[in-house]
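In this supplementary section we document a worked example of the pipeline. Step one takes a protein sequence of length 557 as its only input; no multiple sequence alignment statistics are reported here. Step two produces a three-dimensional model, which step three serialises into structure tokens for compact storage. The input and output of this example are shown verbatim.
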Amino acid sequence: MKLITRRNSIIAILCLLSFTLGGFITQKVEDEKISIALVRAAQKVIGLDFTDIEADSMLTDLEGQRASFTALRKLNIPNSVSPALNFNPLPVGYEFPDQSNYFKVSSVNTSKLPTVKDDLAFYTIVQLADLIRTKQISSVDLTNFFIDRIKKYDSKLMFAISITEERALKHAKKADAEIAAGKYKGLLHGIPFGAKDLLAAKGYKTSWGSVPYKDQIIDVDATVITKLEDAGAILIAKMTLGELAMGDVWFGGKTKNPWNLNRGSSGSSAGSASAVAAGCLPFAIGSETLGSIVSPSSECGTTGLRPSFGRISKYGAMALSWSMDKLGPITRSVEDCAIVFNAIQGSDNKDLSLISAPFYYTSPQGASLKGMRIGFIKSEFNRKYANSVNDSLSLKKLKDMGAELVELELPILPYRDMLIILSAESGAAFEDLTLSNRDDLMVKQDKNAWPSGFRSSHFIPAVEYIQANRARAILIEEIHKKMKGLDAFIAPAFGQNLVATNLSGHPCVVLPNGFRNGMPTSITFTGQLFGEGKLLKIAEAYQRASDFHKKQPSLNF
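The serialised model returned by step three reads:
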């Protein structure tokens, strides 16, 4: 049966003809004439059915297209170059939830330096900021304190790739001098932090967690790091990530969970979550394309914010999927997430995917959610899964807090099938790695690892990639309709929602909601696009009604 006969499918066939069973294009393959038999064999892989006459009519075009592929590959385009196409997550006629910019956190009674200094490890940003502002501790002392903890626990947890000690102490001394001169910049002034090692920092390697790039130096500062340092924060370490942002296995080993050394910390923001959970960083920057903030935060019991796509500049960050990558904070509390997000969100002329939108946030007064309409994905909560008991208790807690719970179901769409978008973009981002065979150097080489995925991505027809993005446009409009009248919605940390909202670009907060078998569990709140202000306020109110985020791993290892 003839499925497609349009000329556009030439590109799809070419994707297949660029390969042989033994490897990628060689000069011999380039010189081999494309035949009707080769087209007929190749088309079976992508479900097409052309007649011999139709195949014959393509041959001249296919030869020309293959020559074009070869020419383009010779450009050796670096990972930092984005396509001349930008993903826009906004539904037609969308109005931003916030109409103005405003930011205010709750005031804290003057914090006191603890008798046992190690207790500082689990202070929040607000508490540490109060100690610095009132000069009970200097930024240099606080920086040295956290660097010492990283050195102490990294051998077991394997969460740090580089300790940026020289840079950190230079900036900490500067922060102390500014504060002494009465030039206090705010809550992040003098506060140490870590950054996932897919973010470039001048003077230090940016390894992307991967063997082929372990000695790579990118001589720029990522915009996120620049903004944090402009706010007075102190970069003290580059944190591990699973190779090229998958999982928790990197070129140095496997990042561990501080709650249980027999478990990995999950990924790919593995080191960021592990170090924050272990009290070795007040906060860290992670990234998410398909669960890389949600998953390690859930595993390690941290609080993470995955912002709306387009909120935070990705300049200086490794690209995995230009239309799905998002940067965000991993912290001890929702309020800390809000503080960091406020510093790193917003304009940057170096990232054309940014969308300028207001951010209005005030910390909630108490723990009431009266007047809030919060959706819940009924089918997700009704299924049997590991954390169903704690998640059900979360629903009850929201109701007890005065929220109106509204049944919600996601649009019925082939979410997993749309992930050919991620596959195609990641294959393009790392085509040079594949064609050079340096992918053979990577640690993981199984069928579910990146080397295999990057290779198979070359078999995705351009037409089908575009069709997946058209389906994505339908998803955006449908979720927008489903969320009308809701302030946010709640869902299990893992499930269909994780895929759907990463594709649609919606923000979410993942936070602890209990324990199971001695390990932390989490729930996610999803907000309106660019509605981080209300989303954070709702999640913080819920968090204030519990103390799960205040629990600490014993670290007896």
